[in-house]
């Protein structure tokens, strides 16, 4: 069982956990007053996009999947975060 | 000893490949149809949330301040850790290490089961403080979307239970079923990562 610690998947998980803590601290320190904060929003949304991509690519194994699935998942992720940021900035 | 350990490491995390294309669709195609549909539907909800939020930024910011950001963060790590063990368990099952796979999936179930328990510690104080879906637009989105997601988590836990059962009782566990269950669980993780950013973190 201990051999699993050396799996590349553990490195992906460690990265996911580190950026989760980073985004939590960013929102806590930069947004504790709960004012509109464009920098905090952009950072936490980009971190969310990175985490989503890491889970889809490595845990869901889309990395090694057929081309159509990789294209669909890339398209969904890019369209979603472009829309989220686009709508956010359209109200600024 | 070192050779054995290295051999095992090389096998873990490396999906089985199709000899002709070198590519492999994890699990059943029908599950991917469902996963993509779910991602598109939730994606539409996420964008709608952003739209309503833009119209009432102060209301949404003040309401966000009432959420328990710490439990949200801990729950994110719970789901990520659960997903790691599901991914490791899937690799173990694929390499024929069924006993390891069972253990890894049971650990994944444990981390996954922590999520609804912690969610209770969020919902109960919120509801007793008078924050309900009827409070305002933010809490309507919050309860409907995190509630829908929680249903996915509970169904996911049942699916993981069936994966463990398949690995334990079947003499030849079906890897495609293990992969299908894993794919569903990772989708639950993905949806939460975005919910966490939108409801708890953005300003």
UniProtKB/TrEMBL annotation, chain A:
Entry keyword set: Cell membrane, Membrane, Transmembrane, Transmembrane helix
Quote the Pfam families the UniProt record gives. Answer: COX4_pro
Does the UniProt entry include the keyword Magnesium? no
GO cellular component entries: plasma membrane
- Location (main, coarse): membrane
Keyword Signal attributed:
no
- The entry's protein name is Prokaryotic cytochrome C oxidase subunit IV family protein
Membrane topology term reads: Multi-pass membrane protein
Q: Which InterPro entries match?
A: Cyt_c_oxidase_su4_prok
The protein's location, in the record's own words, is: Cell membrane
Which residue spans traverse the membrane?
Answer: 6-26, 38-59, 71-91
Q: Which residues form a coiled coil?
A: none
Q: What organism does this protein naturally occur in?
A: Mycolicibacterium vanbaalenii (strain DSM 7251 / JCM 13017 / BCRC 16820 / KCTC 9966 / NRRL B-24157 / PYR-1) (Mycobacterium vanbaalenii)
Automatic annotation (TrEMBL), chain B:
Give an example GO molecular function. Answer: cytochrome-c oxidase activity
Any GO BP annotation? aerobic electron transport chain
Tell me the ranges covered by the Heme-copper oxidase subunit III family profile domain, including all copies: 30-203
- Keywords, ordered alphabetically: Membrane, Transmembrane, Transmembrane helix
**Sequence segments annotated as region (Disordered):** 1-23
Chief location: membrane
Give the reactions, separated by semicolons, that this protein catalyses: 4 Fe(II)-[cytochrome c] + O2 + 8 H(+)(in) = 4 Fe(III)-[cytochrome c] + 2 H2O + 4 H(+)(out)
Q: Which superkingdom heads the taxonomic lineage of this protein's source?
A: Bacteria
In its keyword annotation, does this UniProt entry include Transmembrane?
yes
Membrane topology qualifier: Multi-pass membrane protein
GO cellular component terms? plasma membrane
Q: Where are the transmembrane segments?
A: 30-51, 71-89, 101-121, 141-164, 184-202
Q: Is the Transcription regulation keyword given for this protein? A: no
Which InterPro entries does the entry link to? Cyt_c/ubiquinol_Oxase_su3 (IPR024791), Cyt_c_oxidase-like_su3 (IPR000298), Cyt_c_oxidase_su3-like_sf (IPR035973), Cyt_c_oxidase_su3_a-hlx (IPR013833)
Where does the UniProt annotation locate this protein?
Cell membrane; Membrane
The protein's matches in Pfam families, at most eight in alphabetical order, are given as: COX3 (PF00510)
Report the sequence similarity comment from the record.
Belongs to the cytochrome c oxidase subunit 3 family.
Listed name of the protein? Probable cytochrome c oxidase subunit 3
Q: Which organism is it from?
A: Mycolicibacterium vanbaalenii (strain DSM 7251 / JCM 13017 / BCRC 16820 / KCTC 9966 / NRRL B-24157 / PYR-1)
């Amino acid at each position: 069982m201990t051999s699993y610690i050396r799996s590349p998947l553990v490195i992906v998980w460690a990265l996911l956990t580190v950026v989760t803590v980073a985004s939590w601290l960013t929102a806590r320190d930069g947004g504790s007053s709960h004012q509109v904060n464009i920098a905090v929003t952009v950072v936490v949304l980009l971190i969310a996009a990175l985490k989503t991509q890491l889970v889809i690519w490595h845990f869901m194994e889309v990395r090694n999947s057929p081309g159509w699935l990789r294209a669909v998942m890339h398209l969904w992720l890019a369209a979603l975060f472009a829309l989220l940021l686009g709508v956010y900035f359209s109200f600024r | 000893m070192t050779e054995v350990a290295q051999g095992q490491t090389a096998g873990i995390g490396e999906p089985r490949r199709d000899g002709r294309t070198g590519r492999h669709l994890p699990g059943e195609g029908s599950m991917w149809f469902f996963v993509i549909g779910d991602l598109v539907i939730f994606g539409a909800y996420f964008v709608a949330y952003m739209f309503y939020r833009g119209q009432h930024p102060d209301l949404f910011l003040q309401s966000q301040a009432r959420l328990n950001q710490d439990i949200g963060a801990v729950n994110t790590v719970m789901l990520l850790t659960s997903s790691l063990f599901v991914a490791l368990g899937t690799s173990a099952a694929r390499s024929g290490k069924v006993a390891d796979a069972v253990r890894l999936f049971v650990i994944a179930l444990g981390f996954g089961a922590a999520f609804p328990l912690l969610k209770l510690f969020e919902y109960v104080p919120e509801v007793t403080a008078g924050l309900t879906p009827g409070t305002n637009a933010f809490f309507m989105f919050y309860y409907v979307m995190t509630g829908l997601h929680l249903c996915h988590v509970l169904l996911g836990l049942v699916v993981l239970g069936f994966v463990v059962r398949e690995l334990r009782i079947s003499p030849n566990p079906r890897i495609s079923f293990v992969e299908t269950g894993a794919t569903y669980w990772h989708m639950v993780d993905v949806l939460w990562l975005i919910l966490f950013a939108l409801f708890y973190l953005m300003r």
